[in-house]
């Protein structure tokens, strides 16, 4: 039979929806049964584990969260998806990778931490320029943890009627303990702006105060992600309420090169060309570089070629550099 520690580990992995750990413990129990002469039990356990592995490829099993379909007012406030993207598919700096892997590690072992009076990092503030992976990060966390991704729809959340926005916020935070998931507040500066701002109105202050209160009181198993391009506009009190603040930057030349190779993996392109392209792409966001790669790839497909021409990639990158320069000039005139 399974040992007491194995049974506790089995239940803990189920509670944490950690399928890999669940299978690992089950195989340990099967091996223990085989060593103690219970060969039939060991074989049956192995067959069951194989069945679980097969099901994991096509559906959510074990402690995973069921399909979420918000109804009523919540249906207007939340856009729900089940991302398949993983962190390994993203090009991120080493410090950001380290922070995110720590979040995943603590979340997967949250029961173990709570047994010792500790809480996992699960309230994250992502700051940085547009197109640098903040939204994709929240989707990747959902994909890694096999959780639903619930994106808050600001156009439905923020209203002109006094008290209504705070009431809608409250309904979202009430859902978090009932429906475990990754909740994304994108363009967070819309509700998290500095309370002492000159153009502020009383209702915005009330909304922010409500958010701060809900965030501090939340002790659910959901992950809360707030993302903004305008960190300077955020109220100082917000930074103290989040477990982790992650700063994103535009890609370096080496990161741009890695991204180009990943994006064009199905096409041929020489490494010297990638090195040149990564230099041309400096200053662009991850999203800009992906768009440039896609434009060059389309050109190859339309020419019935499996090779991305360096000239086409250079032209696509140049167009996006020009757009960036035009946008900067427009912002300076304003």
From TrEMBL:
InterPro entries: AAA+_ATPase (IPR003593), AAA_ATPase_domain (IPR050168), ATPase_AAA_core (IPR003959), P-loop_NTPase (IPR027417). One of its GO terms (molecular function) is metallopeptidase activity. Its EC number is 3.4.24.-. One of its GO terms (biological process) is proteolysis. The gene is ftsH. Keywords: Hydrolase, Metalloprotease, Plasmid, Protease. Residues 120-252 form the AAA+ ATPase domain. This is ATP-dependent zinc metalloprotease FtsH.
